[in-house]
Design goal:
The protein is elongated. It is an alpha+beta fold and about 425 residues long. The chain is built from 16 helices and nine strands. Helix 4 runs antiparallel to helix 5, helix 9 runs antiparallel to helix 13 and helix 10 runs antiparallel to helix 13. The strands form three sheets. It has a four-stranded antiparallel sheet with strand order 1-2-3-4, with no helix packed on it. A hairpin with a 2-residue loop joins strand 1 and strand 2. It folds into three domains: about 110 residues, no CATH class; about 40 residues, no CATH class; about 150 residues, no CATH class.
Length: about 425
């Protein structure tokens, strides 16, 4: 018969996460007092097996973790599960366990008007109350206490303390094992983004889901673009947001369109053709274009030193040679010629070009709206009348109030009638 060997743990002060405290306590005055006696909250109060090589650890602070039996590292991520202080935990059964916790609440103190004469609330006093009393008040308090002990006269009797009501709420909580994907989705739905990202990094999950949720729930501005949209990897999703999301002001709209435009540049187009992007939204410089061989198209002779702008222009010209915008199909069995001629655009490259054209169109219209360019708007209404004329009045009403209507009178609808014959 094999006996179960007890677990031997290192000292509490060396255990990972032994000194963590519930962050919600900082907002509660009553629980904030317990933080001053931190050492009493560190010890373990309950230990049970979770699985082979893993145990559940419950501490006096209310922290509960599923930890490695060897290293005591939390297997659920960086943060632990929080209960009321000193929870009791059952053994694991069928992939889960029960935890019994007790929440203690003190009834609010009565006001001075509600208390009778000579009564005083009993219960936990504020930890700083002694410091608030002056030395003189304490001195007279001691004298009155001594006189009452000697004379037993009611005038020297200390105020009677009225007990405060204490409410205890017991909860039986069930914790069950789940897949990292399910837990990840729950964290996102409950808006626990930091914990969700921690799970994603631990288990190799897609972090786009976190940033997509944050982006959808935030207003469009420079900060949200940098903090959320710029961290999303999926190209089709980012471009869809750049084209479909309508910001609240002109500056935010321009910033969003320009961000999408950066991800549809030549480098991204060439990277898609070479299969070097993996469907990611790539900005200029994100892909190592130098690894894409286009040196065969570059003159072999040495060229004099050029400015940075000229070098960038030269580079773009060489990248353009790698893209075939023609609809013709090249059929050739010559291996050397196939290395020189660029391939036709793939479906993904065509979609990228369509998105870029839309972004440029929106930016042009946005500039027309912002700058009160009447001539440009007239051209747009002329060549894109089928799309814009139904919304003509809405567009014209957005001209700045300082713009005189005489400047765009040609674009306004006119009322006229034909004279009836006599």
């Amino acid at each position: 018969m094999n006996a179960l060997l007890p677990l031997e743990y290192p000292p509490a002060y060396t255990q990972p996460g032994h000194d963590e405290l519930n962050p919600d306590w900082k907002s509660s005055p009553e629980k904030r007092k317990k933080i001053k006696d931190k050492e009493s909250l560190y010890p373990l109060i309950d230990v049970n097996w979770w699985a082979d090589g893993a145990v559940t650890l419950a501490r006096c602070s209310g922290a509960l973790t599923v930890s490695s039996a060897k290293t005591l590292k939390n297997l659920l991520g960086k943060s632990c599960e929080w209960f009321e202080p000193s929870p009791q935990v059952t053994a694991t059964h069928d992939g889960g366990f029960l935890s019994l916790e007790c929440e203690i609440k003190l009834a609010p103190k009565r006001s001075r008007v509600e208390m009778r004469a000579g009564e005083e609330d009993e219960g936990e006093e504020d930890s700083d109350s002694d410091h608030d009393l002056s030395a003189k008040a304490r001195y007279f308090g001691y004298i009155k206490q001594g006189l009452y002990l000697v004379t037993e006269m009611e005038r020297f009797a200390p105020p009677r303390k009225r007990p405060r009501t204490i409410t205890k709420n017991y909860r039986l909580v069930s914790l069950r094992s789940t897949t990292p994907e399910e837990l990840y989705q729950r964290k996102i739905e409950s808006e626990e983004y930091e914990e969700a990202l921690s799970l994603a990094h631990t288990y190799g999950l897609d972090t786009d889901l976190v940033y997509q949720r944050q982006w959808r729930k935030s207003a469009v501005n420079i900060a949200s673009i940098q903090n959320y949209l710029s961290k999303i990897k999926k190209r089709s999703w980012v471009l869809h947001e750049c084209l479909e999301r309508v910001p609240e002001n002109v500056d935010a709209a321009k910033e969003l369109l320009q961000y999408g435009l950066k991800g549809t540049d030549l480098e991204a187009l060439v990277a898609i053709g070479k299969g070097a992007d993996d469907g990611r939204f790539t900005l200029p410089g994100d892909v190592d274009i130098e690894s894409i061989a286009y040196e065969k198209l570059t003159p072999s002779e040495k060229e004099p030193a050029k400015s940075k702008g000229q070098k960038e222009l030269k580079k773009r010209q060489e990248l353009l040679k790698l893209v075939n915008f023609s609809k013709e199909v090249y059929v050739c069995n010559c291996e050397q010629l196939n290395q020189v001629l660029p391939h036709r655009l793939t479906l993904e490259q065509k979609e990228l070009c369509r998105c870029r054209l839309k972004l440029l169109t929106f930016l042009d219209r946005l500039a027309t709206y912002k700058e009160s360019n009447v001539q440009a708007l007239e051209i747009l209404l002329t060549y894109h009348g089928s799309d814009l004329l139904p919304h003509r009045l809405a567009i014209l009403s957005n001209f700045p109030e300082t713009t005189s209507p005489h400047e765009y009178s040609l674009l306004l609808p006119e009322a006229w009638y034909a004279a009836l014959p006599c």
